[in-house]
Design a protein that fits this description.
The structure holds two protein chains of two kinds. Chain A is of the alpha+beta class. Chain A contains 25 helices and 21 strands. Chain A has four domains: 151 residues; 294 residues, no CATH class; 43 residues; 70 residues, no CATH class. Chain A is 52% helix and 13% strand. Chain B is elongated, with a radius of gyration of 29 Å. In chain B, helix 2 packs antiparallel against helix 3 and helix 5 packs antiparallel against helix 6. In chain B, strand 16 and strand 17 form a beta hairpin. Chain B is of the alpha+beta class. Chain B folds into two domains: 188 residues, no CATH class; 77 residues, no CATH class. Classes of the chains: A alpha+beta, B alpha+beta. Chains A and B meet through helix 5, helix 6, helix 7 and helix 21 of A and helix 2 and helix 3 of B.
Chain lengths: 660, 329
Amino acid sequence: MSAVPAPLDYGQQMERQRLGWSLLALGVMSAPQALHLAPWITITAVLLALWRIASAWRGWRLPGRYGRYTLALLAFAGVLVTFRTLNGPEAAGALLMLLAMLKLMEAKGLRDYFLLMLIAFFLCIDNFLYDQTIPLALYMVPAVWLTCVALLNVAHPDPERSLRESTRSTARLLLPALPVAVVLFMLFPRISGPLWGFASIKHAGVTGLSPTMSPGDLAQLAQSDDVAFRVKFDGAAPPPSQLYWRALVLHDYDGRTWSRGNLPWQQKLLTSTEGTELHYAVTLEPSNLPVLYALDLPVKIPDDADLSASYEINVRLPVTERKLYQVTSYTRYSYGTDMPGWMLRRDLALPSEQNPKARALADGWRHSASTPIQVVKDALDMFHDQKFFYTLQPGQLTGNDRVDQFLFDARRGFCEHYAGAFVFLMRAAGIPAHVVIGYQGGVQNPLDGYYVVRQREAHAWAEVWLTGRGWIRMDPTAAVDPARVDEGVGGGLPADEVAGSMFDIYPWLGDLRNGWDALDNGWDQWVLAYGPELQERLYRKVGLDYGNWLQLALVFVALFTVVFGLYWLYLLWERRPPPLLPVAREYTRFCTRLARLGLKRAQHEGPLDYARRVSMARPDLEQDILAITDCYIALRYEDTDDVKRLRKLVRTFRPARKLS
Amino acid sequence: MFTRARANLRRRIRDWAWKRQGPDGHRIVIVQRRLYILPTAQGLLFGVTVFVMLLGSMNYANSMGFILTFLLASLGVVAMNAIHANLLGLELTPGRAAPVFAGETAHFHLAVRNPGKRARVAVTLGADDDDRTVTSDVPATRQSIAPVPRVTTHRGWQELGRLSLETTYPLGLFRAWSYLYLDWRVLVYPAPAAHAPALPPPLGGRGLGRPNDQGEDDFSGLRQYQRGDSPRRIAWKASAREQELLTKRFTGIGEETRWLDFALLPGLPDEQRLAVLCRWVLLAHAAGVVYGLRLPGVSLAPSSGDEHRDRCLKALALYGFAPQGQVQT
C-alpha cells in the first residue's frame, strides 16, 4: 500500500473546521491578556494549542483521560502558586485560558466546541477588566466579529462555506444587534456599587502622587506627561494662579520624609467662604490613593466621600479605576479659625536637635518680628531675595541636617524642597504649618474645553495658621520663581530642563495630542464613566422617572416591540416572493376571472390544456380565451414583447356569470 | 428521568400541533402559523452565560463589559429572528417515492422551493419514526430536492407519517421547526426470500395454463415498443426503417413460459410464500424469461419487462390488503 493518506470524510472535515475556528477565537480573545499574564501561562497555553493542532493535522497522540486530569491539576496548582488565589480577574483569566486549552484536548462535537466559544467570550470580558482604552476597544471590534464568525462555523460547520460567506452572514446578524445593544447600554438600569467582593487589579507602574513626600519625589513626576485628572467647569474657570488642586495634607516630619501621620480627624472646623461657587466635574485617573482631588477649597463633595479636618477628600478604597465626581469649591475662603490647641500642636511638632542653623534663623525672625505674619513675610522674602534656584536637578541631600543643607548650601530645589523647608522654618518659629501636596495648574484643551492636569503639574505648597485668620496658603516656590504658578511648570524651569519636551518643539504634535486627548476624554466621559448618574440625567432629559420601575419596564417592552417588530418586518420583506413579471401578472388576473366562474386552473394544468377545458365549458368565451392564451404563450415562450396587447385583452375580458 | 420528561413534552407538543394544524394538502407553504421555535440546550447555556456576564459587568461597573453583554444578548434575539426566517415562506411539494423492498430505506423526494431572495441554509427534514434526516441548503429563488429517508419494515403501503422540517441556522441558539402532515405513502414490496427454491420449470403443452399470445416461439409481427420490453426483442432493422422503436411479437406456447404460482409453495406461511414468489419474480426477470404470477384471486398473464415485473411485485406487496380490483390496475 502506498502512503497516501485517506481522504477525510465529511465528519472529520467538520471537526477540523470546528477546531480551527475555536482555536482562532480563543487566540484572538486571549492575546491582549497574554501580555498581563505570567509567561509560563501563555507559553503553556500556546504549547497545548500546538499539540492539539499537531494531533488534528499530523496525527499526534493526545493525552489520555488521566493525562488531562494531571494537566488540569497542575494548571490549578500553578495558578494558585502564581496568584495566591483562584479569585479575581487575573487568576480567573489565567485559569480560564488554561482550562480552555485542556478542554480543547478532548473537545469533540458541537457541545464541547460551543462551550469553548462561550469561554472565548468570557476571556473577552476579562480583558476589559484590565483595560478599557480606545485601542483595545478598536482591537475588539474585529475580534468580536471574528469570534461570532467562529460561533457560526462551530454551530454549523460546512467545509464548503467560504470565509466571505460566513463573515457576511455574521455581519448580517451583528449589524441589527448593534443599535439594540447601544440602546440597552444607555437605558438598561444600572446599579451603583459592586454586587460581591471587588477584587481589583493592581495597576503596576501607576505614576502619581505618593502619600509621603521626600525631596526628589515630585521632581520625578515632573518628567511624566501622563494625565492625572481632567476637569470640566460648569462656568468660567478661575485664573491659573488659583488652580491649586489639593490632594493630601502632610503633618508629620521625621527629618527626612513628610507624611500624613495618623488618620486625620473628622473634626468639623469653622469655615467661611466668599465669592462665587465653582461647580466642576473631575475625572480622576487611577491614583492608588484613597483620596479625591479638588480645587482649594472644596465645600460640597460626593456622597460616598468624607471631608477631613484638613479638607482632604477621603474615600474608602484606593482609586484603582477611573472615577468621575462632582465637586463645589470656593477659591476665596478661610477655614480653621476655631482650630483647637491640641490639634495645632501636631502642626508645630519637629524632630528634636536637627537643623540647628535653620532653627536659629527662625528664632531670630520670631524675636525681631512683631507679628507672626511678619515672620511669614521674612521667610518668603528670603526665598525671593536670596539666590535660590528652581530646578529639576537639585542634587542629593544627605545626613541629619537636610533643611540646613538645603537652605544654606545647596539652594537648588524643586517645589517639595521649598515647601518642606518653609514649613520647617514656620514650625521652628512657633507658627503652625503643614505641607499640602497636589497639583498646580492645568491646560485647557481647546477641542472639548476640558482642563487637563498632568502628572508633571504635581506640586507641593504650605499652609500656615494665623490667629483670627485660620489656615492661609503660602507657596514658597512662587516666591522663588513666580513663573511656576503663572505659566505652569515649564515656565519656571531653566530652559535646558524643559527643551526636552517634543510637544514644545513640534506644535502640530501638540495639536495631535489635544485631538487624541479630547477623543480619549470623550470616551471616558460618555462610555466608560457611563453609570447611574449619567443615566439618570439621560432619563430625566427624555422625561422618564428613573425610580419608577413599572414605567421603565413598560418603556423597555415598548422599545423592544418596536425595534424587533421593525426588524421582523424587514425579514418578511426580504423573504417576500419575487414580484410576478407583468406578463404573468396579467395571465394570473385572467385565471382569477375564470376561477370566479368556477373554472379554477389546476396546479398541473398548462395554459393550453386549461384553455381547451375552459372553452369546452364556456363555448361563448372561446374566442377571447384563445386570443389571450395565444398572446400569453407568445410572450412567455416566443420572442415577442407586446405586453400591452395582453394587458388590453385581459382588461376587456369580462366574462358573464352564466352561459348566454 | 430527564429524558422521559423531554419525550413527554415532545409528545404533548406533537399532539397539540396535530390538533391545531390537521392534515396538509398537496403543496405546503411554511407560514408563521405552523412554524414553532424554542431555544436549544446551547441557546439556554448562551443565555446563562450572558446573564453571568451581566452580573460581572455590574459588579465591576465595567462599561465595555456591558456593551459586550448587551451585544451578545441582542445577537441572540436577532439570531432567533433569523432562525425563524430561515424556514419561513419555504414551499414544499411531494415528488417521487420509489417502491422499495421491505427492510430497505424508502426515500420520499420532497421538493423544497425557496421563493425569497436569501439562501436558506442547513434546512433539515426527517420523518418522525426515523432518526435519520436529510439536510440541505436552498439557494435564493431555487428549489432543491430532499430525499427524506424512511425505514420500512413490512410489505404494503407505508405511510410517510409526520415530517419535521427544522433548522438551527444561524448560531444554533434556537430550533425552529414545522410539522408536515402529508398524505403520502410508498409501496413496499415483500423482502425477497434469501434462499428460494429454483424457478418452477417452464410448462410444456397447450393444455396447461392459459393460452399464451406472447410466447417467444413463432414470430407473428411487430408492434410499437412499450416501456419494459426486453431490448433483445426490439426489431432494430425495422425500427430503423420506421423511425420508431418496434418490438417483435411472437405467438405460440412459450418454451420458456413459467407460472409463478402461490399454490406451488404448500406448507409455507403466507408471508414466506410471498417472499419466495418475490425472489422468483426477480430471478425470472433477470433471466429474461416470460412468466406469469398467480395468487389466490389474482392472476397476471405471462409477460416480461420492467413494467410486468413491477406489476407482479405490486400484486405481491398488496396481497391480502386491498380489494382485488385495485390490485389489478
